Amino acid sequence: MLPLIQKLQTRPSFATSPFSVTPSAPVVDDFWLVVQSNAGEVEFVASCTNGPLGGYPIFIWCGRPVSTMSPAFIQQRMSLLTHHLLKSLSSPKRVFSVFAPTAVTHAFATAWSTLTNFEIVESPYYHATFSSVTAKTLLPASPPKFELPQYSLRQATPADEAGVADLCYTFALTGDPFVLDQAGAQKEARCLISQGQAYVCEVGGVIVCLVAVTRSSTNHATITKVVTHPGFLGQGWAKRLVREVCLRLLHKEGKKSVLLYVALNNRPAEYAYKGVGFAGLLGEAQDPNMDNEWLELGFEGTDNGHW
């Protein structure tokens, strides 16, 4: 949400009223809603924005840790938010899912389903823990356990489009309902490469791993996609590439932290990211000032986008 917040700050000033919801400049289905207290505290920001492959989920950022909010506080704000969201949309079918800290997602989904009669999809689309690494916590690479073939870790170029597209397609196969056909994967690859958001590991002329960094602000960057070619799993390529990307973002670009989400119960991914220096994984104590558990819930009968 940090990049969205920075965009929001460029909008005209918002009027203040008791926990009001103020829309940004009216663009069809591409806007933010702010829940603001009468004291001027921004309590929640909800984004309804679009990407090159369709609409994004409704993302909700919280102004303070959810642990400091009561269930009634959250539910009241989400009820207010959903009513204003419905008024701002071209169609309620645009809201195909919501992604936020777990308690906020449940409150929003209940309020939205009650308001619109779109039932909540029974199985969550995504349930993850939020983690971060800084220049101080980034760990050095450990010696390989076996001799490695020649490889390179680098930013992707247009010549890598086919390999990146293959990995985008592979990644989407595990992201039901946000699957891509080959044409969609190629379009995503082209967008990632043209915007400098794709990093690859190449082994023997084959693109074996992809890391995408699609949300960056002045001080922070978020890794949103990590995928390895099925024939190269378990060889540590993702860990090497993630570390290289973090090294570049933290030391060369001066980011204060690199963030990512790790699906709950994905122990191999947790081991890999913990080995890079990401905090709060594998039972490690988490930052009490962060909302560490995030949940995406979908709605039946809506028009799926892609993220």
TrEMBL record:
CDD domains: NAT_SF (cd04301). InterPro entries: Acyl_CoA_acyltransferase, GNAT_dom. PROSITE patterns: GNAT. Coiled coil: none annotated. Pfam families: Acetyltransf_1 (PF00583). GO terms for molecular function: acyltransferase activity, transferring groups other than amino-acyl groups. Residues 151-307 form the N-acetyltransferase domain. It comes from the Eukaryota. This is N-acetyltransferase domain-containing protein. It comes from Tulasnella calospora MUT 4182.
